[in-house]
Amino acid sequence: MSEEQKIWKVIAASSAGTMIEWYDFYIFGSLAAIISTQFYPEGNATVNFLKTLATFAVGFAVRPFGALVFGRIGDLTGRKFAFLLTLLLMGGSTAAIGFLPGYATIGIAAPILLVVLRLLQGLALGGEYGGAAVYVAEHAPDGKRGFYTSFIQTTATLGLFASLVVILVVRAAVGEEAFKAWGWRIPFLLSILLVAMSYYIRIRLKESPLFVRLKEAGKTSTAPIRDSFGTWSKWKVFLLVLFGATAGQAVVWYTGQFYALFFLQTVLKVPLTTAYIIVAVALLLGAPLFVLFGTLSDTWGRKRIMMVGNLIAAVSYYPIYRAMKAFSDPLDPVMLTVLVFIQVVFVTMVYGPIAAFLVEAFPAKIRYTSMSLPYHFGNGWFGGFLPLISTALVARTGNIYAGLAYPIAVALLTFVVGSLYLRESHTDRIWDEVGGHDPTVRDAGVSPA
Question: Which fold is adopted by the domain 3-223+231-426?
Answer without folding.
Answer: Growth Hormone; Chain: A; (1.20.1250)
